[in-house]
Amino acid sequence: MVESAKGLKLHLANGRTVLDACGGAAVAIIGHGNEEVQKAMIRQASKVSYVHTQSYTTPAAEDLANFMLEGSPHGLEKAFFVCSGSEAVESALKLARQYFFEKGETDRIHFVSRKQSYHGNTMGSLSVSSNLARKVPYQDFGYQHVSHVSPAYAYRYKRDEESTADFTRRLLEELETEFLAVGPSKVIAFVAETVGGATSGCVPPPPGYLRGVRALCDKYGILLILDEIMCGTGRCGTYYAFEQEKVTPDIVTVAKGLGGGYCSIAAVLAHKTVVDVIRQGTSSFNHGHTYQAHPISCATALAVQQILRRDNLVARCAAMGKLLEAKLRAALSACPSVGDIRGRGLFWAVEFVKDKESKETFDPSITFGIRVQQTAFEAGVAVYPGWTTVDGRKGDHILLAPSFTVTEEELDTIVRVVKTSITIQEQVYM
């Protein structure tokens, strides 16, 4: 039971204090209890708390969109604000379908995604996801026109005899083969997390991979949807994670860092190429939610984003991320259970193995990663556990995603507690 929170500290009802090293689920980018954001919330509530967007708009929604899309960054021209990452992905899938419908390419009904991906809990977003545990009760219940290719996950999927360039080439060949097998004229979009999220654990793509994906999508007239729900809005050390890949998506989704935990908000951002087709056709996105572009949420998110830009927190995230990486590698590389340390910015995962050389995983029944998380929590640090990391059935990791305002002293505490928690579990299970 959390009674209050300030900065990176969660104050529990039992009197304990926990250091939030994962931002909840990589959400709290400016920390908890920011009074400037609270005042923005109250100001908006005193003006207008809700209107229906079928008939009305508000300065809060327009100001947030204008702030994010000033100068059409990367060609992104329109924003559609909803309440969650799942809603954002669902909306992106529908927008992509409408784009082709209005172009007269009505045979395009298929999405290609990747294994070990996660895009949300609604039926459409879950259908393009590959988090097997979350899909168990819903087999044959979701959208059927979806196929999955291998994840861009070098630690597990690059063959020993392959170079990184060979691995990238093989992934791209597999994707093109899938497009051709489905029929390129039937594919709406390729959907991918720019940097893998909680399912596989902060997996950056190999060099050149997303540029190659972009080229294949262009070759066959397929849209590229990048899911930055978790890895975007500065989390990886640039505002958009795709900036580091030198690619431009047709549609991008953002959520967690958009409101920073102060409100329920997510966004679909559409490139000019998509917007122009809709504008020249029906001129209306045939989709909607009651609470889309909610005024209080938009005003709150705007305050978060203004703080992010004004205080140069994305650059701070990049700098503190390099510090966190160095500390993790120095403290954990010698731990026999630590197989891989990976990430970008303040978005890092530690993957566990029973044997470093063979990369053998722990028996899933042990729940090694969850045990590390629980031990760390008892020591006063909250980390985010992951399981079924490798293939939906086995593998463990923990995820670290502290606020961009984290101090070096707090990083030292996080790394120290994580190392101790791992060592305690190693003594039992290795």
Topology:
Layout: E1 2-6, E2 9-12, E3 17-20, H1 23-26, H2 35-47, H3 59-69, E4 76-82, H4 85-103, E5 110-114, H5 123-128, H6 132-135, E6 146-149, H7 154-157, H8 164-182, E7 187-193, H9 209-220, E8 223-228, E9 251-254, H10 256-259, E10 266-271, H11 272-280, H12 295-310, H13 313-332, E11 338-344, E12 347-352, H14 368-378, E13 381-382, E14 384-387, E15 396-400, H15 408-429
Parallel strand pairs: 3-13, 5-6, 5-7, 7-8, 8-9
Antiparallel strand pairs: 1-2, 2-3, 4-10, 9-10, 11-12, 12-15, 14-15
Describe this structure in words.
Keywords: Pyridoxal phosphate. Belongs to the class-III pyridoxal-phosphate-dependent aminotransferase family. Its cofactor is pyridoxal 5'-phosphate. GO terms for molecular function: pyridoxal phosphate binding; transaminase activity. 40% of the residues lie in helices and 18% in strands. With 430 residues, the protein is α/β, with parallel strands linked by helices. Strand 11 and strand 12 form a beta hairpin. Helix 2 runs antiparallel to helix 12 (295-310), helix 4 (85-103) packs across helix 11 (272-280) and helix 13 packs parallel to helix 15 (408-429). The longest helix has 22 residues, at 408-429. 52% of the residues are buried. The mean pLDDT is 97.
Q: Keywords for this structure?
A:
single chain, 430 residues, alpha/beta, seven-stranded mixed β-sheet, 15 helices, 15 strands, pyridoxal phosphate binding, PyrdxlP-dep_Trfase_small, Aminotransferase, pyridoxal phosphate
SS field, number of helical segments: 15
Strand order, sheet with most strands? 4-10-9-8-7-5-6
Classify the beta-strand content into a percent band.
Answer: 15-25%
Radius of gyration: 21 Å
Give the overall shape, derived from the CA principal axes: globular
Global mean pLDDT: 97
Q: Indicate the percent of residues in helices.
A: 40-55%
Largest sheet: 7 strands, mixed
Question: Structural class of the helix and strand makeup?
Answer: alpha/beta
